Amino acid sequence: MPTVFKFGGASIKDADAIRHLTPLIEAHADRPLVVVVSAMGKTTNKLETLLASARDDGRKDAYRDCFDALQAEHREAIESLFGDASDSPRERVDVLFEELDTQHRKHRDAPYAKHYDQTVCYGELISTTIVAAWLNHCGIATDWHDARELVRTDACHQSANLDWTATADAIRGRLAGSERVILTQGFIGGTEQSEATTLGREGSDFSAAIFAHCLDAHEVVIWKDVTGLFNADPRRFDNAVQLERLSYAEATELAWHGAKVIHPKTLGPLQEKSIPLMVRSFETPEAAPSVIDAERRFDAEVPCCILREKQVWLEVLPRDFAFMDEPRQHDILGRLVEAGLHANLIDSSAMRFALCLDDKPERLETLIDSLENDYELRREDRLTLLTVRHPRPGMMDALSEGREALAERRNATTAQRLFHSDDCPETWHIPEAR
Ligand code: ASP
Ligand code: MG
């Protein structure tokens, strides 16, 4: 049965990192092995900057500079890996950069999301071209596959929806039974009209799950620069610990509440076919991974803390002293959906309906413009939402350290509090269970 490996940007950020990948793949002799790869390092962010300057007439120089810098970084990695070797992918990668430039010219007046997908996909097309050439150079028989032809989607650019039937046909038809390493791109797909699409930022995890689902994989391994999943972001909590085992459902909850663990869409396709997901470190591959599977027994063992920063608290109040009843809530939530926003916490009372939202300025403006016509609004900015899954008694209070909470919510498994970011510490500490 096939295995699917996923390597994110950090694991292929430069030539050294790519060299590091070879033994991990060599050590896995079973075929088929599908290897899903992201763009190198921070390439996707840089492509987004490039896109912004391509759409702005006044920033032609910025476009050139960005473009040249990105090409130079990739050339440097190729040079370091291959030197003058005849199998260097230098020319193929140069062609891809030319295509990228052409796509910018062609789409610069198109809607942003379409322009985005036709250009940002090159991060992955280029990185995989380099990695495939490198594996072959090292004697690992590898085929490069274009995910735009395999991951079939609708034309909802930047968050394309999968056509599962067409995808399964394409993936099974082309990849099943391969004796070689199958190397392909995460994050990207394509429409029936052969236009590139993307699955949303950090979407490579989801891509790995799509390939695993369609090929009935035996397991998925996400290779990261940390040894697994943690119960809190180790950069923000000084006593975060690794989670050994959790269920698909719990991992989905954590991702939903904002833990930057795994793309939230990843778990569904794996859960349907009971395919376990391992999160391992490419730096210390011998370390025990975090395992996500159907077993729910361990979910409540370790409380998990999640911070969502840059939050906005929007209180919606009636102008007519009427109740904020279900028809009104329905109306407000409808406008929220139309603006493309998601509420991280909702609090309602007789004459107030309040929402905690990510600070996405354009979308917020759309929502506020719409609501202002009919309601009174109050807004607070610069907030931090703390979510604790499976809190122990007293834990939320200890974490709050007496700071004022603007809002609070609690159910059997989850506690949330919203604070002013200025009141929050740079480094948090998870209190001992009592
Ligand atoms: N390269 C894409 C991103 O940075 C997809 C991914 O890494 O998963 O969002
Ligand atoms: Mg990434």
From TrEMBL:
Top-rank taxon: Bacteria
SUPFAM superfamilies (alphabetical): Carbamate kinase-like
Positions of the Aspartate/glutamate/uridylate kinase domain: 2-281
Pfam families: AA_kinase
The name this protein goes by in its record: Aspartokinase
Source species: Billgrantia antri
Catalytic activity: L-aspartate + ATP = 4-phospho-L-aspartate + ADP
The keyword Transferase is assigned to this record: yes
PANTHER family xrefs: ASPARTATE KINASE, ASPARTOKINASE
EC number: 2.7.2.4
Pathway: Amino-acid biosynthesis; L-lysine biosynthesis via DAP pathway; (S)-tetrahydrodipicolinate from L-aspartate: step 1/4; Amino-acid biosynthesis; L-threonine biosynthesis; L-threonine from L-aspartate: step 1/5; Amino-acid biosynthesis; L-methionine biosynthesis via de novo pathway; L-homoserine from L-aspartate: step 1/3
One GO MF term: aspartate kinase activity
InterPro entries with a match to the protein in the record: AceGlu_kinase-like_sf, Asp/Glu/Uridylate_kinase, Asp_kinase, AsparK_Bifunc_asparK/hSer_DH
Keywords, comma-separated and alphabetical: Amino-acid biosynthesis, ATP-binding, Kinase, Nucleotide-binding, Transferase
Protein family: Belongs to the aspartokinase family.
